[in-house]
Amino acid sequence: MTTTTAIIGMDISKYSFELCGTDERGRHTLHRRLHRDKVLLFFANLPACTVAMESCSGSQHWARRLEELGHKVMLIPAQHVVAYRHGAKNDRNDAEAIAEAATRPNMRTVSIKSTDQQDLQTLHRVRERLVHHRTALINEMRGLLLEYGIVCAKGMTRFLIWLREEFAARVAELLPMAQETFHALRDEFRALNERLAAINKRIKAVFDSHPVCQQLATIPGVGVLVATAIIASVCEPQRFSNGRQARRLSRTRSPTTFDWRQPQTPRQKPCGQPLFTDAARPRRTQHHLSQSRQG
Questions:
Q1: In terms of pTM, does the model score above 0.85?
Q2: How far is CA 247 from CA 14, 24, 114, 237, 270, in A?
């Protein structure tokens, strides 16, 4: 039965994996449910074939493991699989839809990341969360202090100067309970800054030792974070036919092509995860504001 299996669609989860195998003509040759502990053993005893999965949490790990066993792996964006699912949404129907989607010759797939790329992207994700947490903490401190008539400086640089030069004197005017609360918030802010500094140092070390990062840094506007984010996310740059396709990874649009006067309609999200999730979005310039007032 398995000798004629050319494509296997695999619906993955935490513990239970649903498999659907088809031959070259698309006829079903295999239906099986496996526990995650038996997946590698099953594919190790299976002749080399194409294994298709949805690009989701855990798919990169299984793609690397299956490639080590000699199988060809396809990671298909989930939104491209929906059109091929028949009936209710369950594991069996999802596996069949994945197997059918894998037979399409022009199906777009997601590149498989190496462990080094996965490690660097994980570091960027942790850094992004810490940056958001630090911003939220600053806003919380600014709002709470304003309730006591204490106005903090706006902006990260000016806030750091204010925290170093004026924080102690202004908070000393408050009652002991409030003083303890704001000192705890200040200590939390300092701890976040230390963690971010350590992560930035690790990212800088990768930037200094990676030759591709050094080449990317020659592009105006590309620094340490952008260059390392590119090498962590882009596995096969030759798949992009032009620079516009590569720019779509950032999910940003150029301000010169953005009309702020027109209501924006919902757009389909690009495949995969965003390259720069904390990238600056186009902002309203003075030119856009004057045009919106005139319109």
A1: no
A2: 33, 36, 22, 11, 11
